[in-house]
Structures are given as structure tokens and as C-alpha cells.
Recover the amino acids of this structure.
């Protein structure tokens, strides 16, 4: 499932470059993130996965390159509006003060909790309604990760960026998240999952973007992940060819 | 033996005792204690001579207060040097509330508009403003370092950068006022504040000393709150980047633009 030049739905990344001081993190990175599909972003630690995710919702401004949302330059969009449309769940699932209900309500545009919507978001993230009144600070790492996902979902984003979503989850919880993401993608949500969990990526992804030495290679999971799992470093094979141009 | 000489000898004996005790306990503090005492003696002797001069030449009072404000700004600014324009932030947060309140107290006649009244009043208020600025600024810098995940989580939910920083600034302001609130609440019960002690030792009646002390303490409540609020506002502006982003502070002495 790949985007074409005529398909402007989703994110299109072109020529992205980021450096922290002297260290080049990303160079000339180009790929597309279509809606209705799950894109796995894989690569070894320090490859720039988190940096790339932050560029996609402009928490970080790249030194070069563009990101387009539905064909419109993301830099030209109002930043808060962009981030509501392109949700990001960070690697550390931060819980705001108060209950789970308050955490979910925080994400709503008007701040008014609608019980059905909150329960639905919780269920999508694999938690039942009894969690609503629990103090967020008392949740386990895995529960926090799922509340953070539910909180992002209450915003009803068009695209969802997840940074290592299975880092704090056991196998069963990871499978539940994978099923949730597949369901959301089926409903039209574009999902980007940055992960070093290659089995999870292989399970969930429709397409893979592999980062290595600051550059990106795009392909199908079978092509990229089998080689990556052998090298344990998400090393893309030469045969996959150059990065796919953005739409 | 004269009383001034006795005071000097008694205080010297106390600091020597402290240095000896620290040496016996192998705390490694003896040199610091003696150096601090020596510096205080030299500084206070110079200040005493300067103030005596200022009392004779009132125009010098303005310069003296300006030096106090600048010194306080440098001190508080050094505690948040990870932020751009830290010294300017400290200068604004200290000078406006402290000098404003001093001006009001003199204008309404609470204290005489003479160097003898103005310099101690301004000094106490500048010191209080410096404390509030330092505590607020330092806490904000610490939270900008440790709280980057929370800030990014709020930004990712669509918050404006200013809104994402509000929880940090509220915590910093509340924390900065705790020492003064505790001091004010316990005034006369746990400790006798410095102004009160100084006035009584200088010959003022306890009633007069209490009244002046109360005036200073209650004025400080507003001065320190304003300093903390101004620090929070100026730090928020310094830490807010175009595109609703927040400055990433990686260490108390460093920062990185994202």
C-alpha cells in the first residue's frame, strides 16, 4: 500500500534534513505516509526515529526539506491545528495530574468530557471504563502507555504518530495495541509507528520506512524486516532501491 | 573594653570556633567558613563607609541603589543562565517590583525620603525580589530540563507553547513564595526578623521596630509575588520559539534550539 503522486491524502516528506550541532541525524529523507495504512519506522537506536516523528508535527523544525499534510505544506499550517490533526504519543507516556478521565478530557477541544467518547477511546487502547476515575499517577507503565494512546485518540486525529508504543507492554498488550491500530487504520486513520520491535513492526505494518545512517529506505515489510531482523540493526538491503519519492 | 571592640572580638571568636569545629569533624569547611567571614567583614566595612558617604551626599543614594539592583540581577541571572537574556530577565523582575514598592512607600510617607530610610528599605525589597527571582528562575530551568516530555505531550495535544508552560510556571511561582510566607507566618514566634532586631539594637522601641518590620514583611509579599510572576512571564517569552515550540534546555548552563 503506497501513496502515488496523485494521492495527496496523508503526509508527504521530501528531502528532510536535521542536524544537532555537528551531528547529522537525518539527510535527504523522503517518504509518504498514506491515510488508512500503518507505516512502521524502524532503525537502530539513535537512527533518528524520534527526531523524524517530531518533524512530522513540527515539534522540531528541520534544517531542510518539507512535510506536506494532504498536499499542503505543514509549515504553512497553524501549528496547534497541525498537531491536533497529526497526533503524537511520545516514547515516555506522560500522565498529566488528575484522573484518567481528566487526562482524556484535557485532550478535548472544549475540555468537556463526553463519557461515551472517553470510554470508546479507552476501549480502543485496551482499557475498560473502570479506569476513568483512577488517578493517572498510580497507573503502571503499560497502563500509562495505553492511556496516552487513548488521550491522543480523543482528539480524533487524521494521522497518529507513535514512538515505541510497545516499550512498556507485554506480548498480550502489544497484540491488543496492534489490533487497535489495524482497526483504526481500517477506519481511515494514518498511523506511523516508530519502533525497534521488529516482530511488532512485521505484525502491524503495511509498509516500512527503514532509517540507517540518516537516510530512509521505503518498502514492504517482507522486503525490509526480514533483512533487518537478521542484522538486528534494521539495515536495509541494497536491493530495495532508493527512497520512494513523496506524492 | 569598648563595646564595638567587644562585638568584633566576640564575632571573631565565634567564627574561629566554627572553623575549629569543622576542622575537628573533618568536614572540609574550615577554609570556606573563614573566607566567607573575611569577605563579609571587608564587604560590610566598605559598605558602611560608602553608606556614611551617601548619608552626607544624598545624590549618591541613587547610584547606590542602582548598584544593588545590578548586583542582584547578576546574581539571580546566573542561576538561569541556560536561558537567553537571563540577566535582562532578572533585572526586570527585580527592579520593577522592588523600586516600584520603594517609591510607593516613600511617596505615601511611610518612610522619610532620605538616604537613611531609602537605602535600607530598597535593600530589603531588592533582596526579597532577588530571592523570588532566583527561586522561580532556577525551578523553571530545572523543569524545562526534566519536564521536556510533559511539555511535548501538551504541545502534541494541540496546546500553545505558552499554555504548555503554565503548569511549570505555577509550580515555580508557588515554590518561590514558600520561604517568605513561612517567614511572615512565623514572624515573632520562631524567629525575630532582621529589621526588627536591627532597629531594637539600634535603640528603637520594640513597638516601632515591630511596626516597621510588619510594613517591610507585608510589602515583601507583593514584591516577591510580582517578581515571581514577572520572572515566569519573561522566562515563558524567552523559552517560547516560533511555531508554538519550546526551547529545549539540556543542562543548567546550556540550551539547544529545536
Amino acid at each position: 500500500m503506497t501513496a502515488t503522486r496523485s494521492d495527496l491524502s496523508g503526509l508527504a516528506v521530501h528531502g528532510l534534513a536535521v542536524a544537532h550541532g555537528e551531528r547529522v541525524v537525518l539527510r535527504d529523507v523522503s517518504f509518504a505516509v498514506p491515510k488508512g495504512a500503518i507505516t512502521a519506522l524502524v532503525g537502530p537506536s539513535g537512527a533518528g526515529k524520534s527526531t523524524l516523528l517530531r518533524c512530522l508535527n513540527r515539534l522540531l523544525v528541520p534544517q531542510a526539506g518539507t512535510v506536506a499534510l494532504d498536499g499542503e505544506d505543514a509549515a504553512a499550517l497553524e501549528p496547534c491545528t497541525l498537531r491536533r490533526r497529526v497526533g503524537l504519543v511520545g516514547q515516555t507516556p506522560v500522565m498529566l495530574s488528575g484522573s484518567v478521565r481528566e487526562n482524556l478530557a484535557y485532550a478535548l477541544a472544549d475540555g468537556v468530557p463526553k463519557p461515551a467518547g472517553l470510554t470508546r477511546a479507552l476501549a480502543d487502547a485496551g482499557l475498560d471504563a473502570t479506569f476513568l476515575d483512577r488517578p493517572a499517577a498510580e497507573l503502571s507503565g503499560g497502563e500509562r502507555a495505553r492511556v496516552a494512546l487513548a488521550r491522543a485518540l480523543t482528539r480524533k486525529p487524521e494521522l497518529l504518530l507513535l514512538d515505541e508504543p510497545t516499550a512498556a507492554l507485554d506480548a498480550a498488550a502489544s497484540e491488543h495495541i496492534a489490533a487497535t491500530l489495524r482497526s483504526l487504520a481500517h477506519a481511515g486513520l494514518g498511523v506511523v509507528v516508530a519502533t525497534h520491535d521488529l516482530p511488532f513492526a512485521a505484525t502491524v505494518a503495511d509498509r516500512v520506512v527503514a532509517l540507517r545512517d540518516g537516510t530512509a529506505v521505503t518498502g514492504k515489510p517482507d522486503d525490509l524486516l526480514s533483512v533487518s531482523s537478521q542484522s538486528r540493526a534494521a539495515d536495509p538491503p541494497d536491493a530495495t532501491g532508493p527512497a520512494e519519492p513523496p506524492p | 573594653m569598648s563595646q564595638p571592640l567587644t562585638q568584633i572580638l566576640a564575632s571573631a571568636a565565634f567564627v574561629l570556633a566554627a572553623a575549629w569545629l569543622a576542622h575537628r569533624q573533618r568536614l572540609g569547611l574550615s577554609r570556606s567558613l573563614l573566607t566567607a567571614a573575611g569577605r563579609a567583614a571587608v564587604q560590610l566595612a566598605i559598605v558602611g563607609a560608602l553608606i556614611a558617604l551617601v548619608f552626607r551626599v544624598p545624590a549618591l543614594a541613587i547610584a547606590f541603589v542602582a548598584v544593588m539592583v545590578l548586583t542582584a540581577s547578576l546574581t539571580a541571572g546566573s542561576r538561569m543562565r541556560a536561558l537567553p537574556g537571563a540577566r535582562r530577565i532578572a533585572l526586570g523582575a527585580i527592579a520593577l517590583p522592588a523600586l516600584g514598592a520603594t517609591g510607593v512607600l516613600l511617596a505615601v510617607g511611610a518612610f522619610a525620603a532620605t538616604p537613611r530610610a531609602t537605602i535600607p528599605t530598597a535593600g530589603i525589597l531588592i533582596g526579597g525580589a532577588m530571592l523570588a527571582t532566583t527561586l522561580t528562575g532556577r525551578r523553571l530551568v530545572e523543569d524545562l530540563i526534566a519536564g521536556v516530555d510533559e511539555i511535548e505531550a501538551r504541545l502534541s495535544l494541540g496546546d500553545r507553547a505558552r499554555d504548555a508552560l503554565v503548569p511549570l510556571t505555577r509550580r515555580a511561582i508557588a515554590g518561590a513564595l514558600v520561604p517568605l510566607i513561612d517567614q511572615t507566618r512565623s514572624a515573632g514566634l520562631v524567629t525575630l526578623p532582621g529589621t526588627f532586631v536591627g532597629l531594637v539594637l539600634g535603640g528603637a522601641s520594640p513597638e516601632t521596630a515591630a511596626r516597621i518590620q510588619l510594613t517591610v514583611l507585608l510589602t515583601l509579599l507583593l514584591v516577591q509575588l510580582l517578581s515571581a510572576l514577572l520572572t515566569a512571564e519573561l522566562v515563558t517569552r524567552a523559552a517560547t520559539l516560533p511555531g508554538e515550540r519550546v526551547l529545549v534546555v539540556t543542562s543548567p548552563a546550556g540550551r539547544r534550539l529545536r
In short: The longest strand of chain A covers residues 23-34. The two ends of chain A are 13 Å apart (CA to CA). The mean pLDDT of chain A is 84. The CA atoms of residues 51 and 60 of chain A lie 8 Å apart.
